[in-house]
Structure formats: structure tokens, C-alpha cells
Design brief:
The complex is a heterodimer of chains A (79) and B (225).
Chain A: E1 2-9, H1 16-27, E2 40-45, H2 51-66, E3 72-78
Antiparallel strand pairs in A: 1-2, 1-3
Chain B: E1 8-13, H1 20-29, E2 33-38, E3 50-53, H2 73-83, E4 87-91, H3 93-100, E5 107-109, E6 117-125, E7 141-148, E8 152-154, H4 157-165, E9 171-173, E10 184-188, E11 194-197, H5 213-224
Parallel strand pairs in B: 1-2, 1-3, 3-4, 4-11
Antiparallel strand pairs in B: 5-8, 6-7, 6-9, 9-10, 10-11
Classes of the chains: A alpha+beta (79), B alpha/beta (225).
Chain lengths: 79, 225
């Protein structure tokens, strides 16, 4: 089962990469952009008998390794 | 220096560690014996006095710096060692490993200016009753180099208050180079036995390398252990 784990920096954390991207976009005249935040996407192929089981497995992985709750939040989705 | 004759330091080597040799030279220069320990070992050698996690780029900084090293087999023993009151020092990437394994509080984020910073930095010694700072005076300014991409210290306001109230900030930057909260360069545990710091004292141990403030740091550990 394909599971997508999207990881975002907490809103109160400075995102210098997002800011650098935003600066570049402004220079390219994309003036409609007001802010950019960069996160990451981890796609996992998980063996599970149903979606709930896959979800719970990836949640456990997120809590134990893939996400650092001090600076990140996450969402899990499935195809 | 009497204790030093018997002090046994362990240096943990991860794939991608690259400050381990300098650290070993520094420790031997103050009279400690050194045991190098591969991260796949499960148990620490017997009678080890203090564990060092060296700088470098364990696992290429994949996922988050220090995150994968924090799940190495040896870490379970190190966490037990720390929880039982053992002395642990993490320098640079080692500091990131200590935070990722919850032995210390907070996280290290990408430098505010998005650049890898490699330069000498003025470090202020904080009020902290630890073996790491005993040979310094509070407010003293020393010169330790920094070399990192992800050194911007972050923690919650509540954690920061607790770090300040309990004198757990032995090292701060004079001129905050990376956007660290409260200019923090290094923190220690509540019992003052686990230390994490971004600057590299092991790079300024010998006069030929540009300074000896690092010698004072390692000597402080040895003399006050």
C-alpha cells in the first residue's frame, strides 16, 4: 500500500529555505506570492491488510523516527 | 591531573563522523586514554568514564542531522548510561544526535542565513556548575571554531526558561552567527553531566592549530572529573 507522509515545519519556526525560494520568486516578478514554506514528502510502500493498519504503522514510524515533533508536524494520506 | 591517569574516554564512530581523530588527540593530550567504539556495537566497554559523540555528518545528514545515528545499535546503551548519571559530550553532529535521542532538550535547525558557516567564534562561558566549565570563569570569552549548516538552536519558551533557571547554558555566542535562540551554543542536562555544543573545542587544543582554549576545556573535564 502506498502511503504519503507530508512533513511541515511548525509555523513558529523560521524557514530560511522557504524565504530563499520566496526571494527568488519575487526577483522573477511573481509578485502575487506572499510567503513560501518548504517541507518534505516521504512515500512509503507498506505491507498492510487495510488502510487503517497502514495509517497506524506510518504514524508509529513518524513518531519514532521520521518526524521531530519539536520542529515539525505531519499528515498521512493514502491513494 | 591525578584523576586523568585513570580516565577512560570512549569515542563513538558513526559512518560519516569526521572529527573523531582530532577529538582523540585532544583527549590524549590531557592524559585520557581513548577507546574507539563503532556504532554497531551493542554494549559499551566496561569501566568507561565518559562518552564522546564526535562531529561530522553521520549518515550524510539524511532525514535530519543526527536522526539516523540516534537509532544506531549503540545508542540504547548510551541512553541507559546517560540516564544512570554517566557523562556524555556531543560536539556538533554529536550534539544533534543527543537532541534526536532526547538526552537533551530542543532541536538544531538550518542556519538562519542558509549557509554553511566555518569560522572562529567568540563563545561566552555561562553560569553552570559543571566539570566542563569549572576551569573557566562565568562571563569569560573563549575562541572556539564553528563549522556547521544546521546549528540554529531552537526550543520552546518553556524549555528555554527551564534551561536558564537551572543554569544549563554553559556556552553562548557573543555574536550569534546562526540564529540560535538566546544565542545558545551549548546546553547541558539538569544534572550537568550531559553536554551538547556546536563549537569545536577539539580544533583549538594545540598552539600550532591557532589556539589553546580547547585544551582548557578538555583539561577542565579531566581535572574535575
Amino acid at each position: 500500500m502506498k502511503v504519503r507522509l507530508e512533513i511541515r515545519l511548525n509555523p513558529d519556526i523560521l524557514d530560511p529555505q522557504g524565504d530563499a525560494i520566496n526571494n527568488a520568486l519575487q526577483q522573477m516578478n511573481f509578485k502575487s506570492v506572499s510567503s513560501v514554506r518548504q517541507g518534505k514528502l516521504i512515500e512509503l510502500d507498506v505491507k498492510a491488510s487495510n488502510q487503517e493498519e497502514a495509517h497506524n504503522l506510518v504514524k508509529k514510524m513518524a513518531e519514532e523516527l521520521l518526524v521531530n515533533p519539536i520542529m515539525e508536524t505531519y499528515t498521512i494520506s493514502m491513494e | 591531573m591525578f584523576g586523568s591517569l585513570f580516565l577512560k574516554s570512549g569515542i563513538i564512530i558513526f559512518p560519516g563522523s569526521n572529527c573523531d581523530n582530532e577529538l582523540q588527540n585532544a583527549l590524549e593530550s590531557v592524559g585520557s586514554s581513548v577507546i574507539r567504539i563503532w556504532h554497531k556495537e551493542v554494549n559499551l566497554p566496561k569501566n568507561i568514564d565518559i562518552i564522546f559523540l564526535p562531529g561530522g555528518f553521520s549518515y550524510g545528514d539524511y532525514l535530519r542531522p543526527g536522526a539516523i545515528a540516534a537509532k544506531s545499535p549503540i545508542l540504547n546503551s548510551i541512553i541507559s548510561f546517560g540516564k544512570a548519571g554517566g557523562y556524555i559530550v556531543g560536539i556538533c553532529n554529536g550534539f544533534q544526535v543527543l537532541l534526536e535521542s532526547d538526552l537533551l532538550t530542543g532541536a538544531l535547525l538550518r542556519n538562519k542565513n542558509q549557509k554553511f558557516i566555518c569560522k572562529d567564534e567568540k563563545i561566552i562561558i555561562g553560569a553552570c556548575d559543571s566539570i566542563f566549565t569549572k576551569n573557566f570563569t562565568s562571563g569569560e570569552v573563549v575562541n572556539f571554531p564553528i563549522a556547521h549548516n544546521d546549528g540554529s538552536y531552537f526550543c520552546t519558551d518553556k524549555s528555554l526558561k527551564s534551561l536558564i533557571d537551572n543554569d544549563q547554558i554553559p556556552f553562548s555566542y557573543k555574536e550569534n552567527p546562526n540564529g540560535s535562540k538566546a544565542s545558545i551554543a551549548g546546553i547541558c542536562s539538569l544534572n550537568k553531566r550531559i553536554l551538547g555544543l556546536m563549537p569545536h573545542p577539539e580544533r583549538v587544543v594545540f598552539k600550532e592549530n591557532g589556539g589553546t582554549d580547547g585544551f582548557k576545556f578538555f583539561n577542565s573535564i579531566i581535572e574535575n572529573f
